[in-house]
Amino acid sequence: MATAVEPRRPAVRRLLQTSEQFLEWLQPGVFADLIGGEIVMHSPVNLRHARLLNFLDRLLGAYLEEEDLGELHRESVALRLSVRETFLPDLAFFTKAQAARLAPTHAPFAPTFVVEALSPGTARNDTGRKFAAYELHGAQEYWILDPEHLDHHFYRREGDMLAEFAVGGERVDSASIHGFWVKRSWLNPDKSPAVRSCLAEILATRKTEGRRRRN
């Protein structure tokens, strides 16, 4: 007696999205990345993640305003890096020259400085495919912050690649934002210091180091 053979089901072909399709689909309040043509939703963040980003956002934003260096944007600004790569980074700094070239709905190029804070749903992409895209498309500096384990890593442009710097150092001097630095101990969301006192310390150090160079 012959056994019935189930008909083979056709393979489901996933259609890759273009950056233009993704940007048209993207709505305010929706947080996702387009990575290799696939939409990857951002996972909800916990308070440690939020506190760390809030601290750095306020500190860096205040410094940039004080020095009149450019624009800092949170996760709501999309970066169109290629036909199938569009990201919404946690923090992105654009110089004044770059800010003048921003499109009405997105940035059509990589920022000078970008920060991603790791979460369980995004960590693999932040340290893998997104890292490679930032590197390929000209980001000058990339900070990967780990709110849970405090295993922070800092990368700066060296030729065609992003190379790690400040490994184990207590003070992390930005390679692309002149005069800006943080203490590694400040990047602990359980012990975030007052933004005002940190900014005052950065600005005081900047003045002191400026006098030394003139002398």
What secondary-structure arrangement, pairings included, does this model have?
Elements: H1 19-25, E1 32-35, E2 38-41, H2 47-67, E3 70-73, E4 79-82, E5 85-87, E6 91-95, H3 96-99, E7 113-117, H4 123-127, H5 129-136, E8 141-145, E9 153-158, E10 161-165, E11 171-173, E12 181-183, H6 195-214
Parallel strand pairs: 7-8
Antiparallel strand pairs: 1-2, 3-6, 4-5, 6-7, 8-9, 9-10, 11-12
Helix pairs in contact: 2-6
How would you describe this structure to a colleague?
The protein is an alpha+beta fold. It has one domain (about 20-215): Alpha-Beta Complex (tt1808, chain A). Helices cover about 30% and strands about 25% of the residues. It has helices spanning about 20-25, 45-65, 95-100, 125, 130-135, 195-215, and strands at about 30-35, 40, 70-75, 80, 85, 90-95, 115, 140-145, 155-160, 160-165, 170-175, 180-185. The strands form 4 sheets. The chain has a 6-stranded mixed sheet. A two-stranded antiparallel ribbon has the order 1-2. Strands 4-5 form a two-stranded antiparallel ribbon. α2 crosses α6 (about 195-215). The model has no long low-confidence stretch (mean pLDDT about 90).
**Strands of the largest sheet, in order across it?**
3-6-7-8-9-10
Low-confidence stretches: none
Order of helices and strands: HEEHEEEEHEHHEEEEEH
CATH architecture: Alpha-Beta Complex
State the fourth-level CATH superfamily: tt1808, chain A
**Strand segment count:** 12
Determine the N-to-C terminus distance: 99 Å
Mean pLDDT: 92
Main sheet characteristics: 6 strands, mixed
Give the tally of structural domains.
1
Beta-strand percentage range: 15-25%
Helix count?
A: 6
Percent helix range: 25-40%
CATH topology: tt1808, chain A
Quickly give the structural class: alpha+beta
Identify the CATH class: Alpha Beta
- Overall, the morphology is globular
C-alpha Rg, in Å?
20 Å
